Amino acid sequence: MKIPAIKKLVETQEVDALMAAEAAIIDEQPLAIEVEGEDEGEQLTHILAAIWILNHMQDTGEDFKTSLREYTKKVRVSIS
To answer: How far is 28 from 3, CA to CA, in rounded Å?
Structure first.
């Protein structure tokens, strides 16, 4: 997971485009948007993070940094 890649998606893409990219990866189709990542797994991680952060920002009114912090807390809890 690379924070700059997630930030770029949050700043440049809408949730609908990110969800379409998620579906394209799952269906092994080419992406309509540029997503940084070493492989499809990392790209999917960046897409899912960006979707979560955008939704969190919209729901709470919080900024990117705060929403990113909440996302990383969620990830840390899930892997510990």
So the answer is: 24
